From TrEMBL:
Keyword annotations of the record: Transferase
Keyword rRNA-binding: no
GO molecular function, one term: CoA-transferase activity
The keyword RNA-binding is annotated on this UniProt entry: no
Entries under PANTHER family matching the protein: SUCCINATE--HYDROXYMETHYLGLUTARATE COA-TRANSFERASE
Entry protein name: CoA transferase
InterPro entries recorded: CoA-transferase_III_domain, CoA-Trfase_fam_III, CoA-Trfase_III_dom3_sf, CoA-Trfase_III_dom_1_sf
């Protein structure tokens, strides 16, 4: 592997499902050695989320599914039953020589096994211990479980997503992907890298990084939250319309649609020219940002009538030539057929134990001096157990004994 930013960092990944594994995958992309600990026999819950599966060389589905593929590339997998004392001792041995531990167990669960922050910090004061839970390590809800969709509702995200109650199909709407998990995972990466910097450059020691999905979701609502904090009035739902410059929304065309944002007066004037209606730029209702916001519904209706006259592929070149930020509404097939995505390497192909060619989503970070080039497939369940345990002093006979007792 090339000498990329985190090449000398070892991460012990005790997390499951998405937020924690996503954070650990990012660290693996950045060069860290990531050891994923899974339950013997069953592994990470996400391995059981169903099709689609990786296909073998003959086109038959294997045991490796889409969810596991999405957030575990570049890792090594070992199987350890941490409910058993021997399993706990294996974890502690690895902790002694690790830089980072990531876990997303419910509040207090790992203390039962002697794998909590206070215990492991005494064993390895340099350890960065990242805990990801629904509500964090403090507060009245800290013991509650939770999933992404719950926090999309509780954070206010659903209250500003979807169409108004007054239109057919209106009401709060969940965002498609598990976006709160992803945001929390990225926050975890920021916290871990910051804690490593403090430890290694500021003369500090290890510490606990406490991440809450609830906190992360609220913080990510950014300017929507600030509308409420500044005015006392919660923002409403506007479908595809934005809360900044107007117009900013999807417009239906003769077939399909397009998305555009004219975020300032100059872009709006160029939009009017590009669609053949320069008079809309001087209309008193739409002449500047404030009037367009006040009359957004009228402007939206007039623009919609215009865009219905042509196909998206007729409108988009004219909008691009005019410098109006705009784009098509893609499905995923179109996304990965786009020349920009191809040039940026956002689809990567890796060798997999079941197939010589498995496609994954690439990392969006592009470094000039330390590029991410070494993508490796997510591991099979327990694929590296023997290799890792041998490295930490467990010979073949000891491993056979542990296996016979269901520890590994």
């Amino acid at each position: 592997m090339a000498n990329i930013p985190l090449s000398n960092i070892r991460v012990l990944d005790l997390s499951r499902i998405l937020a924690g594994p996503w954070a650990a995958q990012y660290l693996a992309d950045l060069g860290a050695e990531v050891i994923k600990v899974e339950r013997p026999g069953s592994g990470d819950d996400s391995r059981h989320y169903g099709a689609p599966y990786v296909k073998d060389a003959d086109g038959n589905p294997t045991s490796e599914n889409f969810f596991h593929l999405s957030c575990n590339r570049g890792k090594m997998s070992i199987t350890v039953d941490m409910a058993k004392p021997e399993g706990q001792e294996i974890i502690r041995k690895i902790v002694m020589e690790s830089d980072v531990l990531i876990e997303n167990f419910k509040f207090g669960d790992l203390a039962r096994y002697g794998l909590d922050y206070e215990t492991l910090h005494k064993l390895n004061p340099k350890l960065i211990y990242c805990s990801i839970t629904g509500f964090g390590q403090t507060g009245p809800y800290r013991k509650r479980p939770g999933y992404d969709a719950v926090f999309q509702g509780m954070s206010g995200l659903m209250s500003v997503t979807g169409y108004p109650d007054s239109v057919p199909g209106g009401g709060p709407m969940k965002v498609g992907p598990s976006i709160v998990d992803i945001i929390t995972g990225l926050n975890a990466v920021i916290g871990i890298v910051s804690a490593l910097y403090h430890r290694d450059q500021n003369g500090g020691i290890g510490q606990q990084v406490d991440l809450s999905l609830f906190d992360s979701a609220v913080a990510a609502l950014s300017h929507y939250v600030q509308i409420y904090l500044s005015s006392g009035t919660p923002p409403g739902r506007r479908g595809t319309q934005g809360n900044g410059g107007v117009p900013s929304q999807m417009f239906l065309c003769r077939e399909g649609g397009l998305m555009l944002t004219a975020g300032n007066d100059s872009q709006y004037r160029r939009l009017c020219e590009a669609i053949g209606h320069p008079e809309m730029a001087t209309d008193p209702r739409f002449k500047d940002g404030r009037t367009r916001i006040s009359n957004r519904d009228a402007l939206s209706a007039e623009l919609q009538e215009v865009f219905l006259q042509k196909m998206p592929e007729e409108w988009l070149p004219a909008l691009e030539a005019a410098g109006v930020p705009s784009g098509p509404i893609y499905n995923f097939e179109q996304v990965f057929d786009d020349p920009q995505i191809k040039e940026r390497g956002m689809k990567v192909t890796v060798r997999h134990p079941h197939n010589d060619s498995v496609d994954l989503v690439g990392n969006p970070l592009k470094f000039s001096e330390t590029p991410i080039t070494d993508y490796r497939a997510p591991p099979l369940l327990g694929e590296h157990t023997a290799e890792i345990l041998e490295r930490f002093g467990f010979d073949a006979a000891q491993q056979d004994e542990l296996k016979s007792r269901g520890v590994i």
